[in-house]
Structure formats: structure tokens, C-alpha cells
Amino acid sequence: MEYSKTEFSQFCAPLWLSKPFMQDGHDANKANATVTFIKYKGKGYVVTCAHVYYQQQIGSDDFRELILFGNSSLIVSFLDFGAGRPASAFRPLIDDSPKANGPDIAIAPTNFVIQQYMKDNDKEWLDLDSWEEPDWSINSPKIAVGYATEHKSTDGKYVLSGFVQAVAESPSGVESTRDKFMLFSQLEEEHEVFFSGMSGGPVFYQYEDDREAVPIGIIYEGSPGSSLEWEKRGHESFLTGSHIKIDAQLLTPNTFKEWLSLAGLNT
């Protein structure tokens, strides 16, 4: 399968955290994460991070729902209306303890409303059914993409999401036997980009020749994260404003099959 080197945004979208039925409106101050559209064994799924799922504060009076809000008037809610009380359609693969073991991933199946959203907003599936394993021995730069929550703007009518495409090295490489990997690079000057909100976005393996990029990961953490956290960091911090650090879960057909099993969504 082919992936355009300049259109990685077609495989993901901003995932907004909103009061039910958008009681809090919709503006550039609303927090977001990223969701990636994945096809496996002919079925479509949407993937984000488990820690995003837990930000909904399910069961509390401050419950938030996760929504897709795009170019058309269609709003996609991930509320599970069949649960008898507000619940999320996403299924987290880990609990919300500080040191939870397992992949920081949450998955929801798709339906015709999500498919219509994808059509209206020119979104495409990352098709794992035609995935070809990259040459892991070639430690080429990787491309991590997603929607940074602090880099949104508005034109007075629409909220314009801040799509970030970060190119970084993987110092220790990426191996199919490890379920996580890190990207790390240092630029010549400070980039003033904060990666909070990119959780749930895809990572691509980009060959240095003409071969097309291959999806290999889902972002779960980045640094610099939020500007508030960055301002509070200690003077002993190794990272500077010129660094890029992104942590990701390995994504392959085999790992995705395991995720579906953990989510109770076996094909």
C-alpha cells in the first residue's frame, strides 16, 4: 500500500474532549487528543490512548465525552448510549493506575456515522491487511504526526486544528520484538512546539529512498508536552527547547491483533 509523504493527516483526526452535547461550546481552548483510523481483517477501528479515555472522568459529575468534529455539520460522539448512564465507546487496554502494565491504548469499533465523517473529511484507513514489514535494520528517520492541543487557532467561524508532523531519529532503532520505542532528535534551534494532544497519532517508518512510508506506531507521550509542564521543569532537566522526544507503542498486524483481544473485540 502507498502512503503520501505529505498527507499523513488523512489517517488521523483531532479527538475533542467535550461536555455532553457540547454544552461547553467549541473553540480553540477545548482540549484534544488524536485518533487514528485503522483497518484490520476488513473491519475498521479508531485508536487513541488509554490515558485519553480516562480523561473523560467516567462516572463523575464532570464527565466528558470524546467527539469528532470536522468540516461538515456532522458530530461523531463516542458515547455508549446503551449503557444506561454516560459511558464511553472506547475500550482501554490498561487501568488508570500510575504504573499500569500494558499498552497505553484504547480502541472503539467504527460504524456508519464514523465512516460518513471519514468521507466528509477526506480521511483514509491505515490498512494493516496490506501492511509490509519494513527493513528494521535501516535506522532511518521516523515521522510522528498528530494534532497538538496548544497549536489551534480560529478564523472566527471554524476551529483550525494544529497538525504537527515531527521527523526524528530512533537512537536505539525499532525492533519487532519490543512493544515500545522512542524517537529523539535535537534541532539547531528551539522549535516552540508542544506535543500534548498528539497522543493517539500514528508514527511512520520513512525510508531514505523512494519506498513509501510504513505505519509502525501509535504515539502515547511526547516532550515538550504542555507549556505549563515545560515551565515547571527543573534546571537539572536534560531536555531543552530544541529537543524532540516522542514515545510510541509498536504497531504491526500482530500487535493490533493482541490489542483487539485485550479490548474484547476479537475478529
From TrEMBL:
Stored InterPro entries: Peptidase_S1_PA
The organism of origin for this protein: Idiomarina piscisalsi
Protein name: Serine protease
